[in-house]
Amino acid sequence: MSRSTKSKEPIAVRIKGSQISFLTSKRQILVLAGLAVLLLLAMIVSVGFGTKYVNPWAVVQGIFGQGDSLDVVVVQKLRLPRVLVGAMVGACLAMSGAITQGLIRNPLASPDVMGVTSGASLAATAVITLIPSASVFWLPPAAFVGAALTTLLIYALSWKKGVNPLMLVLVGVGIGSVASSISTMLLVTGPTDVAQKAFNWLLGSVYGSSWKHVNMILPWFVILGCLSLAFARRINMLQLGDDLAAGAGSSVEKDRTLLIFTAVGLAGAGISVGGAIGFIALLSPHIARKLIGSSYGSLLPASGLCGAFIVVLADVLARNLFSPLDIPVGVFTSAVGAPFFIYLLWRSRSS
After folding, report:
1. How far is CA 275 from CA 17, 144, 163, 338, in A?
2. pLDDT tens by residue, 163-220
3. What is the distance between the alpha carbons of residues 307 and 205, in angstroms, rounded to a whole number?
4. CA atoms of 256 and 238, how far apart (whole Å)
5. What is the Cα 181 distance to its own chain's centre?
6. Measured between alpha carbons, how far is residue 273 from residues 7, 95, 276, 287 in Å?
7. Which of 5, 68, 84, 113 has the fewest CB atoms in 10 Å of its CB?
8. Are 193 and 321 in contact (CB under 8 A)?
């Protein structure tokens, strides 16, 4: 047996005393390790770039409170929280997109396409324009509630003795369009200065992120990230189709409901802190699938790492390309994601 074949041999991972299990391989573990190292290097480089350049070794020292005192302040107070928030926002959105694509069995599905992002954006825009005196810290809970309510509405309107994945997407597209229209109307009719603030948030940005934002998203990222990994086997089963999944022992509706709300929780957590950063949820799972295959035990963490890497890279470009202007991250992700979306549409049409 050749070395390449051996590296692809499946390795079963099972947590003793539970139903949590998934398959991986030596090659997939190496790819995941490579992605993790790449992300770590990108984060260190990103922290170093800015108005004051800090070299990578000084960044590492600054993280641990060592070295030049000015570098420590720049690293610990100004840039590290922003980079950490960007990485977690990207990972949350990407894992949410991967789960959604697996459930819908459609490569074009993502929280953006299904209207969840539009619902979260509408709630945040309403807070900004209708209650101008409200603190900016009300935006995350508002966006989270907006995402959850939108999902409940989509789910209720799609329900007919169970939920059909295609109906879920169609209803989501309709609800998302309505939510976007209302958001635009609020922006047009609101005060100019308030509308500008809302517009920046809608484009998606991690500008001004602090340790408060890190603490805000960290519990959601850890809990929902672990939960989605624990559900990886159920996503693999649901991809077989409802009949085969039921035959293999899956409680189809229960598993689908559980996974939909896990995906919404991840998307809501990402959107509530980073705004509506477009195309990360759509783009990252496709890149991860090319690198690591379609088994969700490895695809979910790979998607999270790819999403985190893209947002960190987009953020360092946003901060430095047009300095002193700080361009929203969403401008760069959309510039890459929109052509990719058109490519996916073209490929779907061809097939």
Report:
1. 40, 11, 29, 18
2. 676 777 788 888 888 988 898 888 888 777 777 767 777 777 788 788 988 988 898 8
3. 15
4. 8
5. 23
6. 39, 16, 9, 24
7. 5
8. no
State both tokens at 301: 């963490």
User: What is the chain's alpha carbon radius of gyration, rounded to the nearest angstrom?
Assistant: 21
In angstroms, the CA 138 to CA 22 distance is 39
Within 10 angstroms of residue 132's Cβ, the number of other Cβ atoms is 13
Please tell me the distance from the alpha carbon of residue 51 to that of residue 323, in angstroms, as a whole number. 8
252 phi/psi in degrees, rounded to 5: -55, -55
Candidate from 14-18, 30-34, 125-129, 269-273 with smallest mean pLDDT: 14-18
Contact between 307 and 91 (Cβ < 8 Å): yes
Distance CA 234, CA 274 (A): 29
Compute the residue count for the chain: 351
| Contact residues for 84 (Cβ-Cβ < 8 A; gap 6+) | 43, 209, 214
Q: Assess contact for 163 and 238: CB atoms under 8 A.
A: no
DSSP per-residue codes, 76-120: IIIIHHHHHHHHHHHHHHHHHHHHHHHHHT-TT--TTTTTHHHHH
Return phi, psi of residue 13, to 5°: -115, 120
The DSSP bridge partners found for residue 12 are 23
* Cα first-last separation, the chain: 35
Q: Could you tell me whether strands 10-14 and 21-25 are parallel, antiparallel, or unpaired per DSSP bridges? A: antiparallel
Q: And the tokens for 346?
A: 């073209």
Record the tokens describing residue 16, joined without a space. 């003793």
The answer to whether the beta carbons of residues 95 and 113 sit under 8 Å apart is no
Query: Which residue has tokens 């290097």?
Result: 41
- The whole-number average pLDDT for the span 21-49 is 89
Amino acid identity at 345: L
